[in-house]
Design brief:
With 456 residues, the chain is an all-alpha fold. The chain is built from 19 helices and no strands. It has a single domain (9-455), classed as Amino acid/polyamine transporter I. Bound molecules: phenylalanine (PHE).
Length: 456
């Protein structure tokens, strides 16, 4: 069967960067950094990206482009008659489970973008303060967020809206949907982020915020910090689950895999760091604790923007930024199960898209409800939302990472790797040897140590 490919190198890279840069960079990375002591977390994160993330990214691109097939079939083609294809099946499951909570956050983002547009935050605070003038705007925003996220209908409807937007884009297919959307959204995201960074440099708390973010305080580092940073590196680069493998299958034959992986990882890390540069100085300028956890973006920031001159425009710019970043990542998560159903179960793009959207919507409803009326239903102390998040980033992604690196390091025919990384002997591929050694020993062993350490 002839398969879709991206129309241009730029389009393929834009889509891969679009997948990598997401809620992970702007929502999760800053709050995890805030909770794990700032600079030291950043350092471990960057090391994880360099020594684990980039080799895995190259490994996935190698598998994907060599097979030009979906995650499960790629393994079947490259290692026929073996069980390796289960790695691909697991990756697909991870994508669906992540979508089950990612779309909830994307729904919140959609709602908050709308509220920013209609200047609803200021009105909410004003209304609450007419009832009780003692209330600070931080209290009002915190109560407002917790009422919203734990309510039944509103977050579910916003989540359904975000799934609908994704489904419409996905129906357009790889070139007209994914690639075109990424090529428009990613530059827009860069412009919005730059505006916010310039604004942040002018804030009174800029130096303090940067000190918190960049000064490594190792007294806060525990085993948990390390697995969190590693899990976050995988999550943020979209590796260890087959997404980049699927995107690799759309890369053209003249794309330089190593260089592409390096630029994607650098851009992704740069954007996470810039998101920190936007968020931490804002917290310090307005006396807000950056260690607040997942609510950081939704409670702290509207509140910060409200107190800032020109805050309306900045707030809108910020939530549009989060929305664009989240949408392009969500599209990549959808692509994996959709292309699987299309190719393995001969479904049309439309039926496959609708099937995946329905499954994701059902999981999303469970995640959303688990933050409110369903919070009593727990597995090992985790509600459904946390379970989906932890199961994927602390367990399934490390296992996927180990399997993918072992596959390319030991199982994949060396001539295939050689052809993929030298583009059929047109490039030097100087990093081939260190990469193979890394994938054989360093990457799986390091992940295993951190993984087992976390279990104990
Ligand atoms: N990398 C995306 C982010 O940072 C999330 C994601 C994870 C997307 C896994 C695809 C696969 O938000």
């Amino acid at each position: 069967m002839s398969r879709a490919t991206f129309a241009s190198r730029l389009g393929a890279v834009a889509a891969a960067v679009g997948s990598a840069v997401g809620l992970g960079n702007i929502w999760r990375f800053p709050y995890e950094t805030g909770q794990n002591g700032g600079g030291a977390f950043l350092l471990i994160y960057v090391l994880s990206v360099m020594f684990l993330g980039i080799p895995l990214l190259i490994a996935e691109f190698t598998i994907g482009r060599s097979a030009h097939a979906n995650v499960s079939r790629a393994f079947k083609m490259l290692a026929p008659g073996t069980k390796w294809y289960l790695t691909g099946v697991m990756g697909m499951l991870v994508a669906v489970i992540i979508l089950g909570f990612y779309t909830v956050i994307l729904g919140w983002t959609l709602c908050y973008t709308w509220r920013a547009l209609t200047n609803d935050f200021a009105m909410t605070v004003a209304t609450a303060q007419t009832v009780d003038p003692q209330l600070s705007s931080a209290d009002v925003m915190a109560a407002d967020f917790s009422a919203f996220s734990s309510s039944v209908w509103s977050p579910i409807l916003w989540m359904a809206g975000s799934i609908l937007i994704n489904a419409v884009i996905m129906l357009g297919g790889v070139q007209k949907g994914l690639e075109r959307a990424s090529r428009i959204m990613m530059p827009a995201l860069a412009v919005l982020l730059l505006i916010l960074v310039v604004n942040s440099c002018l804030l009174p708390g800029f130096a303090k915020g940067c000190e918190f973010f960049f000064y490594p305080d190792f007294s806060k580092v525990t085993g948990r910090t390390i697995i969190t940073a590693m899990g976050q590196a995988f999550f943020s680069l979209s590796v260890a689950m087959g997404i980049m493998l699927a995107y690799g299958s759309y890369l053209g034959d003249n794309t330089k895999i190593g260089k592409t992986a390096l630029s994607i990882a650098s851009l992704d890390t740069l954007i996470a760091v810039l998101a920190g540069v936007v968020i931490f100085p804002a917290c310090y300028s307005y006396g807000i604790d950056p260690g607040k956890g997942p609510g950081l973006v939704f409670i702290t920031l509207p509140n910060v923007f409200m107190q800032m001159p020109g805050g309306y425009a900045m707030c809108l710019a910020f939530f549009m930024l989060v929305l664009l970043a989240g949408l392009t990542s969500c599209m990549s998560l959808f692509e994996v199960p959709i292309s699987y159903l299309q190719e393995e179960h001969r479904m049309s793009r439309r039926v496959a898209t609708m099937t995946v959207a329905l499954v994701v919507c059902s999981l999303g409803v469970l995640s959303s409800l688990s933050l409110g009326i369903g919070s009593g239903v727990t597995v090992l102390g985790n509600n459904f939302f946390d379970l989906a998040d932890k199961l994927t980033s602390l367990y399934m992604m490390p296992i996927g990472g180990i399997l993918i690196s072992l596959f390319v390091g030991w199982r994949l025919d060396r001539s295939i790797t050689h052809d993929a990384l030298t583009n059929w002997r047109n490039d030097s591929g100087w990093y081939l040897r260190p990469l193979i050694i890394g994938l054989r020993y360093v990457v799986p062993v390091l992940i295993a140590i951190v993984f087992v350490g976390n279990l104990i």
